[in-house]
């Protein structure tokens, strides 16, 4: 269950010495073909890291042979020298693989504002190339971890093909993307245009709907590579469904590992006038500090939900709002519903459903509670 689950991919993850604690810090995922179709999505942050700027040029032709990823340093805000470091990394990988640097994507994650130890990194590239294997997906997933406590991988099987993936990210979780590096692989036969279309749709319902702390990273990158090794041209609907499944799985793993959280909160808005309205409402509630502190305090305070909904421009009748928390409809018609004491918030997973009664569209977003000093100061506050 990893990036090497599909045919045509090898990977490795090693401790190159970038991290002083001796943990794995360098990963390489290689597409052995026969196809090299690829697509990628990057951070919307205007302050983007050198690897993001470089990889945008690489993916412009819809082709990629490999992705090299390092943790232990973001190579962000490092100027022209940092960009040169990214190019040097791609060139070393390309030289060892016998390909062109223009086919090598580069990703970095870690502290902003520090140069990478290039001699250490390049020596690591030489070593990791010798350790590529069809079983290397797990090691690669471990090598991209920063504050993550567990490696994050997923896979799914289709009709004669498969999809695999790995991700990292634990803090700064907010759209678009979320301090995340994600590599997705498939052995299905896809054109570059198809890969881009499938990836954009999957992003919309997964990674762009996690929002833990409202912060956006400088390095976010999500890559999809297709080897075509299965020789199967997939049914579009089936492939999209499976890719969505993998990306949602990885997105939920990111939220589950978010720093300091005690609750994972799934917010679903139903019967909205549009999907945009549904997502707007879900995101607004997810960013309410008062709502988050209530959940942290095991208080199903639905008043904080409806008050957040009321600040949006979504179409709804304020007298028709329903709120259900962990299966208990605590608010009915924007009035008192079932006793809030019936809601059990002792577990880690919390589900919140908001019914706008304005249409037939829906959207789901994932977030976490707040566990900092703000909680202690505000968890007892009611409005």
TrEMBL record:
The record marks 109-110 as: Involved in the stabilization of negative charge on the oxyanion by the formation of the oxyanion hole. GO terms for molecular function: L-glutamate N-acetyltransferase activity, acting on acetyl-L-ornithine as donor. The record marks 178-179 as: Cleavage. The keyword Signal does not apply. The active site is at 179 (nucleophile). Pfam families: ArgJ (PF01960). HAMAP family: ArgJ (MF_01106). Belongs to the ArgJ family. This is Arginine biosynthesis bifunctional protein ArgJ. It comes from Micrococcoides hystricis.
């Amino acid at each position: 269950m990893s990036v090497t689950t599909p045919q045509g991919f090898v990977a490795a993850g090693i401790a190159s010495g970038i991290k002083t604690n001796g943990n794995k810090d360098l990963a390489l995922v290689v597409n052995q073909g026969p196809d090299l179709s690829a697509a990628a999505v990057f951070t919307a942050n205007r302050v983007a890291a050198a690897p993001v700027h470089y990889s945008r040029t690489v993916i412009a032709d819809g082709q990629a042979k490999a992705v090299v990823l390092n943790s232990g340093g973001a190579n962000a805000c490092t100027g022209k020298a940092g960009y040169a470091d990214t190019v040097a990394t791609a060139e070393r990988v390309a030289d060892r693989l016998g390909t062109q640097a223009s086919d090598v994507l580069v990703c970095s994650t870690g502290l902003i504002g520090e140069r990478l130890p290039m001699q250490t990194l390049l020596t690591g590239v030489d070593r990791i190339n010798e350790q590529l294997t069809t079983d290397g997906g797990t090691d690669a997933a471990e090598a991209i971890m920063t504050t993550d406590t567990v490696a994050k991988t997923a896979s799914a099987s289709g009709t004669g093909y498969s999809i695999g993936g790995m991700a990292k990210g634990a803090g700064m979780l907010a759209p678009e993307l979320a301090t995340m590096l994600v590599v997705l692989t498939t052995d299905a036969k896809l054109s570059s245009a198809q890969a881009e279309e499938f990836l954009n749709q999957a992003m919309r319902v997964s990674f762009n709907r996690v929002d833990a702390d409202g912060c956006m990273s400088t390095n976010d990158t999500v890559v999809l590579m297709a080897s075509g090794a299965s020789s199967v041209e997939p049914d579009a609907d089936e492939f999209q469904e499976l890719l969505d499944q993998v990306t949602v799985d990885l997105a939920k793993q990111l939220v589950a590992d978010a720093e300091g959280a005690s609750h994972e909160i799934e917010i679903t808005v139903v019967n909205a006038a549009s999907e945009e309205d549904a997502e707007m409402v879900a995101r607004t509630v997810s960013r309410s500090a008062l709502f988050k502190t209530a959940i942290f305090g095991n208080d199903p305070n639905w008043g904080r939900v409806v008050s957040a909904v009321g600040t949006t421009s979504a179409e709804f009748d304020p007298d028709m709002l329903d709120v259900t928390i962990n299966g208990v409809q605590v608010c009915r018609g924007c009035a008192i519903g079932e006793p809030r004491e019936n809601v059990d918030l002792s577990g880690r997973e919390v589900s919140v459903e908001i019914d706008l009664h304005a249409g037939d569209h829906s959207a789901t977003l994932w977030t976490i509670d707040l566990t900092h000093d703000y909680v202690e100061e505000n968890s007892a506050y009611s409005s």
